[in-house]
Amino acid sequence: MESYLYYAPKQRSEWGNRFRELFPEKTEEAMREADDRVKDNVISWKGMSIDMGDSIDWLHNPTGDKEFTWGINRFKHLRSLGIAYACTGDETYASKAWEHVSGWIATQPCPWGLPPEEATYFQRPGPWRLLETGLRLRQWIYAYHFFRGSDSWSGNAEKLFLESVKEHARFLTTYPASIEINHSIMHMIGLLSVGLSFPSWEESEAWTAFAVGRLEECLREQVLPDGVHAELTPHYHMVSLELFVDCAVMLRKRGLTFSEEYERVLAGMADFSRRMTRQDGNMAPFADSYANQPPDLNAAALYYDRPEWLLRAQLHEQFWTVGPEAIERLLARAEEAAPGGDKRGRPGGEAGPEGEFRRRMGAVVGPGGELQGRAGEGASSAVGPRVGLGAESADLPFAFPSAGYYGLGNGEQQLIFDAAALGGPHGHADALSFEWCAFGEALMVDPGTYTYVENPWRRHFKSTAAHNTVLVDGQDQTPYLRTQRWGTPEASVRLIHWEAERQSICAEHDGYAGRGVTHRRAVWFLDSGEWIIIDRLSGTGEHVYQHRLHSRLQQWSIEKTGGAGERESGSASFSLRGSCLVGRADIDLACDLLLFGPASMEVDVEDGWESIRPLELEPLKVVQALLTSDHGGWFATVMKPRLGDADGKSLGIDARSNSEGGWSAELDEEGRPVVTLMRNGRLSSFRLPE
Fold this sequence. Notes:
It is found in: Periplasm. Residues 337-358 are annotated as: Disordered. Pfam families: Hepar_II_III_C, Hepar_II_III_N. One of its GO terms (cellular component) is periplasmic space. Its main location: periplasm. 35% of the residues lie in helices and 23% in strands. With 690 residues, the protein is α+β, with helices and mostly antiparallel strands. Among the domains are: 1-175, Chondroitin AC/alginate lyase (Glycosyltransferase, Alpha/alpha barrel), CATH 1.50.10; 398-687, Beta-galactosidase, Chain A, domain 5. The strands form six sheets. Strands 11-12-13-14-21-18-17-16 form an eight-stranded antiparallel beta sheet. A five-stranded antiparallel beta sheet has the order 3-4-5-6-7, with helices on one face. It has a four-stranded antiparallel beta sheet with strand order 8-15-20-19, with no helix packed on it. Helix 5 crosses helix 8 (156-174) and helix 8 (156-174) crosses helix 9 (183-197).
């Protein structure tokens, strides 16, 4: 007699009813999908409707995208059929699910006898790639809980299914792949699901031990000491975190645990995900990530009992793993922890800039804690201080030195600085780039990821030119070869200085060493709310330097400032004002910007793009300082946001010459850029750390 990992058949109807009560919209969505599956075998894929035939051909692929074949062979579509069956008890749904599973078993024999290097190749085509084998096995285990005891899944059907499950498990243990990439986590989550779901099977104990050992190795190999996944890509970090947590949840259900080291690193992964969240509630989209993805920490919130991490929009995904009691308990605790508007980041009643921020945030965070507006569309009901004033203040500054990500700012502003390595195939050529948020909105952004398909857009979104850093001679910091392959030499980044108390950082990269150029950048955040960025490009020979800033502010005015004093010092300065935040006509948010550089520096604004969602483009404006020089170059930037009708002198930047007070920048006697500020009779200077 098996003890059930998730729930017994007699509990299925009860769980279905409680799922409907907790998530009525998701229930209706699943029912619609299930009804469509029952009616025909049309699959939706990236806006296309594809008829797979009356008897599904699991290798049919009219898209030209091999991800399509991989995707349909993971069987995630069984989830909607399972929910429909749990909610209604209608055998039609169980029958359709069995039609798909049995049809697959009959037509996709296991490819035993493959050479290990072929079987374990991570881009191997077809349904028995190890990634699909593990993910399919995981979905089949959920399906078994949904449909066991139904007419369609009983008798010989059940025997056939369980034999195929065993074959999957044996295949995964026969061909262990490299543990260096996150695919290996997905291989093992399928195997662990089998071992723990069927503890009475002769091989289950060995399968469980094998999976646990490999998962421990995966964590040690793939995750850096500070808890950041080695691919340095927030999206794939989140994917890996959820998988690692799900494995820990399954073990806990059987009274087992991973090692203390596994648990320690896992907690660090959750912390990184939380801190890499923008003020608008979405993950900072560095590398192959997207800007419409709030960090889904629900698995971790349930595992660690942290209601403040709850993301209601995705909570239904955890229901069939942890059960209704755990979901309801976390929801109750979240409500208890946030009884008033301020605790959810809702508008408060304070006066002054902070109260204005809270009032403005009412347009970003709805009365139920849901994200609204351009960045938050589809990301509803994020409960907890991740969205709102308190979270950013408490979490800044932060440092993940092994990874190279750093955060500066306060409750009103947030800057995430990228001093990370390339990170592998999912990395972008973005060393020393940054994202800047103010008053709940992203003002200067990473472009995100438009597509994985090899084409000019893929190359653009991974390029140095698409990021908030300095481009040299129009070339990438690391040579681009194709969609998920970089050339050599690979740019490396060295941290020069980090001082959390003073909120300052300095780093440099050698991506242009082959051109004889080294780029060093320093950033300071001042108590006055202003930011200072100094860039130095050290090198010889003539080069073109482009200091590029990608902004969601759509209107920019440019005024060349300074005069004879600046000409004598060999420097130039420009004062800029950005306004009209794209997609947010309800918020009067602007940015004051000063750009300094050598006398020959020019400044312009051009069109740019970001991809908030796959295959969608949103407009940006790119503020660019341009310099051609045969003896190196430098740029200095001062920036500060302006909210509403606040007094220009208190929130803006005074761009008058240094003799009268205000900001200036020039080279010192040793040829190093220095930014100076004269304010209230006090002179402050900022230099690149050496």
